[in-house]
Amino acid sequence: MLPEMLTDNNPCLQAPSRPIEGELQFSTMSTTGPWSAGTTAQLICKLPYISQGETKSICINGMFSPLGECILPDGGTNNNPVNVMPQQENIPMIAK
């Protein structure tokens, strides 16, 4: 049995915002709304990204609850590559 607040008649007309580097998978398997109360949207991050925050959003009272985001495992952002070798300095060789 669904909790009382999920049994309202207010469908969600708009999906949660699709996170950068992630996809949404709906419990109804439909990617278009409206979605009935109680429908869930699951956050699935593309590799090598991982989820941070809520991974499930639920349709309640006509709105989906907030979702987390997809981040790089080291906490970096899209602007900071994960595996970058430090640049070596050019050190002149001294002839003997």
Automatic annotation (TrEMBL):
Keywords (A to Z) from UniProt: Disulfide bond
InterPro entries: Sushi/SCR/CCP_sf
Protein name, as recorded: Sushi domain-containing protein
Lineage summary: Eukaryota, Metazoa, Ecdysozoa, Nematoda, Chromadorea
